[in-house]
Design brief:
Length: 277
């Protein structure tokens, strides 16, 4: 029987540990060792079960263990200190802001488009070198204060994983990804409804996509998702797989990433007050 809908359960954290949610969903933890060490010590067994994914980890830790951690003064202090450190990191001027004071002609924002972003295995939206390079660009831009806005697609089945059959043939497995279980939040308008971008398709059809946002430190990463009820079945599958399908499928992906991506950036900037690239 086919599942009708997926649900991802997220832990209700004690007030003293509430900043863990922010630390888990901002991907700065992927290159910030003290934050990684904190998550690893909360529950070492759960950390391994979660594949070193903080979002999954918070759902794996039992309520009893969370209560123990909330009563542990050292843990509470560490959580608060790391949350304060992240807040300072996100707000304080960095290299680019100093440079722009001397040269106001430097752009206030830059759009960075890629078909894949490899920030972390916890957000499996890449296949290899290009994605890892794009992810490293986001991390470096964040540390330098370069005002990038990353733009790409959210692939519901990601890139295939390989295994070998008993007779040595490659087997391909496509995981099914639930955005609610990833370090993402839906971009919504002032009315609380998801923001939809639209692009024209052949045969006078329209493709609509919602926008998911990840935070790579200071850098927002916007990922467009066509798997919504407003689209016809074949258009819902435009963002199904990275580098999958035929030439027409790939062209649809490129139209959505390019034209739809520009419209997503404009909507994001209008809602958040971020300067337009």
């Amino acid at each position: 029987m086919k599942a009708l809908r997926r649900f991802t359960v997220r832990a209700q954290l004690p007030a003293a540990l509430a900043p863990l949610q922010t630390l888990a969903t901002n991907l700065r933890w992927t290159w910030h060792t003290p934050t990684q060490d904190l998550f690893a010590t909360l529950d070492p067994d759960a950390w391994e079960r979660a594949g070193h994914d903080p979002v999954r980890l918070l759902g794996e830790i039992s309520s009893v263990r969370l209560g123990e951690l909330a009563r542990d003064a050292d843990t509470v202090v560490t959580v608060r200190e790391l949350a304060d450190d992240l807040a300072s990191y996100l707000q304080e001027p960095r290299w680019y802001q100093v440079e722009r004071e001397d040269d106001p002609s430097l752009p206030a924002a830059v759009g960075y488009f890629s078909m894949e972003f490899g920030v972390t295995e916890a957000l499996p939206n890449y296949s290899g070198g290009l994605g890892v390079l794009a992810g490293d660009h986001l991390k470096a831009a964040s540390d330098l204060g370069v005002p990038l806005i990353g733009v790409g697609l959210l692939y519901r089945s990601g890139y295939f994983r390989q295994s070998l059959s008993l007779d040595g043939w490659q087997l391909e497995h496509y995981p099914v990804l639930d955005p609610q279980g990833l370090p993402l939040q839906l971009l919504t308008g002032t009315d609380g409804e998801p923001v939809l971008v639209e692009v024209a398709m052949p045969a006078k059809r329209t493709l609509k996509a919602r926008v998911w946002q990840a935070s790579a430190g200071r850098v927002p990463l916007l990922l467009l998702d066509s798997d919504i009820e407003e689209n016809e079945p074949d258009l819902r599958g435009v963002t199904d797989r990275l580098y999958g399908g035929d030439q027409d499928h790939r062209i649809r992906q490129e139209i959505l990433a390019g034209i739809g991506g520009v419209r997503a950036v404009r909507a994001f900037c209008a809602l958040t007050g971020t300067p337009q690239p």
